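Entry for the shared binder. Reason: the reviewer on the internal report wants the predicted structure included alongside the sequence.
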Amino acid sequence: MEDIINMSYSIEENVKALKEHGVTVLENVLTKEQVNGYRNLIQNYFSEGKNRCPGYGEGTQTIRPDAINDPHFKGFLELLDNKKIMDVLWGATDNKLRWVHHFDVHMNFGGAKGWHSDAQLWHIDDKDYKHDFSEDTYNVYRIAIYFQDHTEDEGGLFVRPGSHTDSSKTEEYYIGTEPGDIILFDARIKHKGGHYYNGDRCTVYAAIGKDNEWSKLHAEGAISRQVKQNNQDEYVLQDYVEQKLDELNIVH
């Protein structure tokens, strides 16, 4: 299999890897200052037992579903201004981006250690979709960021390349990123989080897709899940998020 991590990849080659393998890695995208700032933001949010997720498991998990609509995490909107990230995503979606309202922040998150996909359609209460949805026109992509070095441990991300369109794909591939790297992967790809890291493991998992019916359904499922996990009565899109999306011509 062609190496999915390659510093010399052009935008077109990253898009090709994302389509064929279901995953690609952009190296050295964030500065050291950005990495430290984002990591501190996450650590401060969960410090001293604060802000546990009330609707996940027993309510002790350090995960914030729909984090971008919490003003504490407003700074993460800067990711949408990052040309290195967005050029690949615009390319992968034929310049038709849709915000799918799917944004999770984790610290030492204990869940999702088994193989799974992040397709959100199965969270829609009145529809019957499988967790490992494989419709080839789905076109929703995760933006995964690990704010610590995982090159020497197995605390990063494991994927099964190609499993976004072929569920029989079983080859395991470990992505050991450095701080500042960005992983882009198809939401349908089989993946799991690593187990080993000595310290606070801070991560962001955002999502964006192509403006199509599947992305609309993905958004519906993501919103349903996040509202339940946050014990909210309704979903609220913050004005600052809407303004940024409108500014960048990303439909929502």
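Summary line for the report: The two ends are 36 Å apart (CA to CA).
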